[in-house]
Write a sequence for this structure.
């Protein structure tokens, strides 16, 4: 009987440390993953704070913006009109136009994911509220890595002229003739 109790006690003592070790290993792995996730969140928050403190990015809280103002698209993405030129030519023969405008947007991807941005993400309207037509040959699709900036230049044809209004996510950016490059 003593041998049986001693044998059962030995089996119990051997199995307990193995069970505890397996539990600690799983706990360590989950803590390491959680630690990595928290480090990534800290990096994202530091990037957002840097952008908010940066005087070059004049982010406004209203829904009406001017040339050069950054529009907060949410999730750390900022967009600004940084270039406007008149003239040039529209290559797409289907566009009937009296005015050609070349528009450059700067997109600042402060998010933690790659961003896809195209001229379909916003609209340009002339002074008579007619939507300008995108020249299909200047239609670019940008893929912007997290934390990076890129410029998107697109050519439009419009019936009327200034002021132009760009609508992005229900925000209006007004472009006056004085904003010409």
């Amino acid at each position: 009987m003593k041998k049986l109790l001693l044998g059962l006690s030995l089996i119990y003592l051997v199995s307990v440390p193995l069970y505890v070790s397996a539990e600690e290993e799983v706990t360590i792995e989950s803590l390491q993953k959680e630690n990595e996730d928290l480090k990534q969140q800290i990096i994202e928050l530091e990037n957002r704070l840097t952008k908010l403190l940066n005087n070059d990015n004049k982010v406004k809280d209203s829904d009406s913006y001017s040339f050069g103002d950054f529009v907060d698209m949410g999730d750390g993405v900022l967009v600004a009109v940084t270039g406007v030129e008149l003239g040039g030519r529209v290559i797409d023969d289907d566009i009937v136009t009296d005015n050609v405008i070349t528009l450059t947007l700067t997109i600042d991807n402060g998010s933690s994911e790659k961003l896809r941005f195209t001229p379909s993400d916003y609209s340009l309207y002339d002074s008579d509220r007619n939507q300008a037509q995108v020249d299909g040959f200047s239609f670019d699709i940008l893929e912007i890595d997290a934390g990076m900036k890129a410029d998107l230049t697109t050519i439009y044809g419009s019936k009327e002229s200034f002021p132009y209004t760009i609508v992005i996510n229900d925000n209006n950016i007004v472009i006056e003739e004085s904003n010409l490059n």
